[in-house]
Structures are given as C-alpha cells and as structure tokens.
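Sanity check record (used in CI):
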Amino acid sequence: MKINGVQYRSVRVDPEDNRTVLIFDQTRLPFSLDVLRLTECGQVAHAITSMQVRGAPLIGAVAAYGLALALRTDPDDVAMERDAAMLAATRPTAINLRWAIDRMLAKLRPLKPEDRVEAAYAEAALICDEDVAQNEAIGRHGLSLIESIAKDKKKTGTINILTHCNAGWIATVDWGTALAPIYMAHDMGYDVHVWVDETRPRNQGAALTAWELGSHGVPHTVIVDNAGGHLMQHGMVDLVIVGTDRVTAQGDVANKIGTYLKALAAKDNNVPFWVALPSTTIDWTVTDGVREIPIEERAASEVTHVAGQMEDGLIGRVRITPRDSAAANPAFDVTPARLVTGLITERGRCAASAAGLHALFPEQAT
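Expected output for Methylthioribose-1-phosphate isomerase:
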C-alpha cells in the first residue's frame, strides 16, 4: 500500500545490505512513522512481544526473518532449535507465528549449517510474497460482499462497514485481511465509509486503522468500542468485517478482545458478520475455541495507562485509573462459529463450520 504516494510493505529487507530487516514501529503510529532496523534475533523477539510489530500474518513473516538473523550468528542445529523456540513463544494466541517457524524449520533442518542463512532469507521472502498474494485474493472475495450491498442500495447511499482492531496492511505484509475488500471497493469508486472501533486498551483501531484508512483516502469515523451495537440498532451498519489471530477447524474465531460482543450485537440486529483470514490462520488441530485456544494476558499497565500526543506535540503516557485499583488485560476473546456469518479466505468464502472449511480445503478433511 502507499503512504504519501510511496509504495511500502510492512516488512522488508534493506536493499543496501540484503540482511537487515526493516519494520515500522507500530507503537509510534499514528504520531510518528519510525522505521526499525532489526539485525539480531533478540531484537525481533522484542519487537513482537512489545507490539512494535503486530498482526497475526505479519508476526509470522517477521519471525521468519528473525530466524534468518539468528542463523547468521550460529547456524548449527542446537542454536537453530533454541532460537526457533524462543521466537515461537513470544505470542501464544496467533497461530501464524507457530506456522511460520514450523515452515522455516522444515526447510532448514535437512540443510548443512553453512547453507542455512541464504535458504532462510529466501524462505522468509517467499512467506512474505505468499502473504501478499493471499491477502489480495481475500480482498477480491470480500469485494463481492460490498458490491452486493451496493446493488441492494441501488447505488444510492453510503455503504457503512464496521471493523474492530486493525486488520489492514500494517497487520500483514501488504493489503491486509479485513481491510483489503474495503480498499478495493474504495479504489473502484464505491461510496464506502468505515466505523473504526477504538479497540481498547491499546487503541489499534484509533491509532492504526484510522491512520491507514486516512492515508489511503477512505472515509472513516473513529468510535468508542461500545458504540457499535447502538449504530447497528439504528441501521447505520451494513456489514461487519474483522480479522482474526486463530480460527478453529469448526469455525470459532479468536480475535482482539471485544470482537465477541460485536458478533452478538450483529446477530441481534441481523447485520452480516464476516471474518477475513489467510488459511495460515486456521488451526486444524483445535475444535473448541473457547476451551482450547490460549488467551494471552498482557500487562495491566495497558489498561491503567493510555498513550497519546499532548497538546504541545509530545507523546506521553498518563494513568487513567486509581493507583490502588487492580486491572486485568485478556488480549483476545473467542467468537463461536454460530455467530459468524462466514469466513473470507484466499480460496473464497465459506460457512464458519467444519463442512464449510473442508469444502475450501479438502486436503484437510480426515
């Protein structure tokens, strides 16, 4: 996607040395567009745990490059397995991370240590290219949903889409998942408007989704997380599209905390609730999302404090709760498949069910 007319990917290798990994520091957006230069595996792990880089597909891609950086220091078997395990443990909920590390190891284990660095960079680059192609395909399959709404409205009136958290190009290598159909519809001239949930406690919607959409020229409005149900009750939402960090073999969806409540409101108001994802986000080993998906518990300080830009332009953090109040911070929740209208994947759309998923991915049927 473009920022001020310049094409970017969310992760790339510095063309000057073909080794250093470049990412955007997402903790600085939208106030500052800072590029981080990652030269060591430990820096990659820190970037993932601190959410300088986030978004399930992007975490996997960056972790793949992290293993390549680790191999530059020590390419032997013991070090490779140790560093891979360390990277895989940085975020427990997003399945793409484990998928990317497993794929890298499958490629690298049969090779001689001296051949692993070049192979690792090549495989990480392939993971990135595949992610871009998958997300573009997701965009095309999701676009037809927006086109159908436009036809129902007889091309009069704005198409209002609600999204939660950030599932745009900054959360993937390019295009995004939930936002890809919106970008395509906007570029084709459809009158789309996006309701952007702020997405407490880290405000990825207010900070990242709003920044992305604004940079691309897509009309949008930031709303507090609890406004979505009200808007649906008054006919002000035509479609909900969200991303996901893990989907079970039965179609349950793990996404940023608050997604479940949006799905309940959508169900109650007959608003279509779609989830966009690459197939790498499907965990075929899990059937019951509520019971089996590990939910990351992040620091209480993300709840008790909020970051923002002061009137003088400085960026700072302020406390918003009493000092003696405890805070809990589950980062994700699980939306049962029964509340999901359908899934949008690179192979097409399907019902959020085992039968629906197997229809698109018959090779996974047992």
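The chain has a mean pLDDT of 95. If this sentence no longer matches the regenerated tokens, the check is flagged for review.
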